[in-house]
Amino acid sequence: MKKYKYPSVLTIAGFDGSGGAGIQADIKTASALGCFSTSVLTALPVQNTQGVRKIYPVPVEAVADQIEAILDDIFPDAVKIGMVHTPQLVETIVSTLAKYRKIPIVFDPVMVATSGHRLIEKETITAIIEDLFPIADVITPNMDEASILADMPVHTIEDLYAAGEKIKKLGCKSILLKGGHQETSTITSLYYDENEQYHSFETVKFDTNNTHGSGCTLSSAIAAYLAQGKTLYDAVSLGQQYVYQAIENGKDVQTGFGNGPLNHFFNPQKLIKNEMV
Fold first, then answer.
1. How far apart are CA 160 and CA 137, in angstroms?
2. SS3 sequence, the chain?
3. Which CATH architecture has domain 4-266?
């Protein structure tokens, strides 16, 4: 009898009880794109659509134990890393993953929430740059995060190009600079690939507050497409298309009284079954 395997995506990220961002958004995204999702909890933020109220830490030993439990059993085809809010957590994730063979890694450097709430401190940013950037195949900062990483204001497309040059020198393999915070009718994102070539992606900006978790969703979508065997460029391109459609299909729905979630299941795919060799 033939045996099959689902493409598997592991998310290492924070919690969002309101269901729009964090691990919940990651699981929804990978599932909607036909992948099997596993997860490791890094933090317990208390939040809703209106913002983050408090963050309860998860012990780093518990994070290491979770990663090992998953990788020893359901080895992923791609990993998405989201909220890492202490230097110790960064070191724990990097050193634990290093015990296993290399997997495609998408890192979403979550530093600022949609509400504008700053989520991590300076020493954590240093640890991220020194330890996480070298193992990530692509990082996905938004304009606020690009501004922090490049240490410069980022408001325009020209600023994105300049920030990309600075961030690439920090040791990234490739960078998707997200333009969602642009105050224009058209949003331009830039993908700075591993060959130091820029690729520009343009989409229409919707008049909606329902973008909570869009960054988590995008990084997870890229991971899901990598798990399916897509190239980095194709995964980045397809991931952005998925997020665009998820926002479009959820733009007129009210969930909560702040920044609402995307519609992750506008066109859910069946779990993909790949024949085992």
1. 19
2. CCCEECCEEEEEEECCCCCCCHHHHHHHHHHHCCCEEEEEEEEEEEEECCEEEEEEECCHHHHHHHHHHHHCCCCCCEEEECCCCCHHHHHHHHHHHCCCCCCCEEECCCCECCCCCECCCHHHHHHHHHHHHHHCCEECCCHHHHHHHHCCCCCCHHHHHHHHHHHHCCCCCCEEECCCCCCCCEEEEEEECCCCCEEEEEEECCCCCCCECHHHHHHHHHHHHHHCCCCHHHHHHHHHHHHHHHHHCCCCCCCCCCCCECCCCCCCCCCCCEECC
3. 3-Layer(aba) Sandwich (3.40)
pLDDT digits (tens, 9 = 90+) for 49-98: 998 899 899 999 999 999 999 999 999 999 999 989 899 999 999 999 99
Q: What CA–CA distance (Å, rounded) separates 79 from 206?
A: 29
Residue 113 confidence (pLDDT): 59
* pTM for this entry: 0.96
Separation between Cα atoms, residue 66 and residue 177, nearest integer Å = 30
